[in-house]
Write a structure and sequence with these properties.
Order of helices and strands: HHHHHHHHHH
Mean pLDDT: 89
Radius of gyration: 16 Å
Number of domains: 2
Largest sheet: none
Helix content: over 70%
Number of strands: 0
Number of helices: 10
Length: about 170
């Protein structure tokens, strides 16, 4: 699914990929987007024939920018959104999604958060991991470090997949 979404974004925003800056900008934005995150950014970078290590750095930065905002601001934002009927439904859906994955982090705490973010599987990643951490009221500084390290681990795994196996198939 991530590969299909990355391909979709690359094809939709093909115009900005005419320049090197445009390619990196697209990869950066994809890396910030929930669901796709760094995984989708590295796949897109590979599809755009961008150098591996520069792409890793751009994707890493794009993926970690939302993390502090999620950890420190999501609970107050959710409280405000809950007051509005339609947005309250969105909050409820997000919380239900997070609670369904909560046990993966809850038992191992910060190691669980690191692994949840670091193993690039569908439904995992920095966005969801930090949302769960915030809902569990885990220590924000420790969660920040665990999420950052998890993004590095996911990045290394995805480098191998995107620039190794997938890169050779296409």
């Amino acid at each position: 699914m991530t590969q299909k979404l990355a391909r979709f974004f690359v094809s939709i925003f093909g115009g900005i990929t005419a320049t090197l800056f445009g390619k990196y900008l697209l990869v950066f934005l994809i890396s910030m987007f929930p669901i796709l995150e760094l995984r989708g950014g590295l796949i897109a970078a590979s599809l755009l024939d961008l150098p591996m290590w520069q792409s890793f750095l751009v994707c890493f930065i794009g993926n970690i920018i939302p993390i502090p905002f999620i950890l420190w601001l999501i609970n107050p934002i959710f409280r405000s959104m809950r007051k509005l009927k339609h947005l309250g439904r969105v909050v409820t859906w997000c919380e239900e999604k997070a609670h369904s994955k909560q046990e993966k982090i809850e038992n191992l705490k910060y190691l669980g958060l690191f692994l949840f973010v670091g193993i690039p599987l569908p439904g995992t990643g920095a966005w969801m991991g930090c949302l769960i951490s915030a809902l569990l009221n885990m220590d924000k500084k420790k969660s920040l470090l665990a999420a950052f390290l998890g993004v590095v681990m996911a990045g290394v795994i995805m480098l191998v997949v995107s620039y190794g196996v997938i890169g050779r198939l296409f």
